[in-house]
């Protein structure tokens, strides 16, 4: 069960649910040590998910944007990540990106919405720190099942992560959910 103060960690995803008139499904905050393998290796670390998923799935990751919105310097998108050569989802998530925290060329690539943020930051040599805030178990619903091509209620694992620059300024808040392995 989410505790007071932890709800904001889910805000990037909750924003899209609210816009669709839906309610975020039940999720339970858990300790990193409670995340079972192989999910623990994929979630409980301080690296970006793009490179972690590329290593695990032995291929480059591409982005499929389900929805997006921009208001000023805040860019939000709901996405599925998949391995090149396959459209099978390897992550479903939502992200809020603070465009003002990025150099103009990096910002332009983010707004093109063709590649995951982690790949863009690496290619543009933007120094950053990945800071997982919470890990969770979530019951899939119609929204998650449609995005990840699942059927029925699935118990999935994920994390809420923040990417900051080296001075601690937020670049992005992310909710990342993995499909069954």
Question: What is the topological layout?
Answer:
Blueprint: H1 11-19, E1 27-30, H2 39-43, H3 49-57, E2 61-71, E3 74-83, E4 89-98, H4 104-112, H5 117-123, E5 129-139, H6 142-148, E6 155-164, E7 170-178
Antiparallel strand pairs: 1-5, 2-3, 3-4, 4-7, 5-6, 6-7
| Number of DSSP-assigned strands | 7
Spatial sequence of strands, sheet with the most strands: 1-5-6-7-4-3-2
Give the termini distance in whole angstroms.
24 Å
Mean of all residue-level pLDDT scores:
93
How much of the polypeptide forms β-strand, as a percent range? 35-45%
Contiguous runs where pLDDT drops below 50 for at least 5 residues: 1-5
Secondary-structure element series: HEHHEEEHHEHEE
**The CATH H-level homologous superfamily:** Chorismate lyase-like
The top level CATH class name = Alpha Beta
Helix content: 25-40%
Q: What general outline do the C-alpha atoms trace? A: globular
Helix and strand composition category: alpha+beta
Largest sheet: 7 strands, antiparallel
Give the second-level CATH assignment, the architecture. 3-Layer(aba) Sandwich
Count of all domains: 1
Instruction: Report Rg.
Output: 15 Å
How many DSSP helices? 6
Q: How is the CATH topology named?
A: Chorismate lyase
């Amino acid at each position: 069960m989410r505790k007071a103060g932890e709800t904001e960690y889910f805000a990037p995803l909750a924003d899209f649910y609210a816009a669709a008139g839906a309610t975020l499904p039940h999720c339970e905050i858990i300790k990193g040590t409670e995340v079972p393998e192989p999910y623990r290796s994929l979630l409980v670390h301080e690296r970006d998910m793009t490179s972690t998923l590329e290593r695990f799935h032995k291929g480059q990751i591409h982005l499929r944007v389900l929805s997006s919105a921009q208001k000023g310097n805040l860019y939000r998108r709901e996405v599925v990540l998949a391995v090149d050569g396959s459209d099978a989802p390897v992550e479903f998530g939502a992200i809020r990106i603070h465009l003002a925290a990025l150099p103009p060329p990096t910002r332009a690539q983010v707004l093109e919405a063709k590649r995951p943020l982690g790949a863009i930051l690496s290619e543009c040599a933007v120094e950053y720190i990945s800071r997982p805030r919470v890990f969770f178990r979530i019951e899939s619903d119609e929204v998650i099942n449609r995005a990840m091509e699942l059927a029925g209620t699935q118990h999935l694992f994920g994390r809420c992560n923040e990417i900051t620059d080296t001075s601690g300024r937020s670049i992005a808040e992310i909710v990342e959910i993995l499909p069954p392995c």
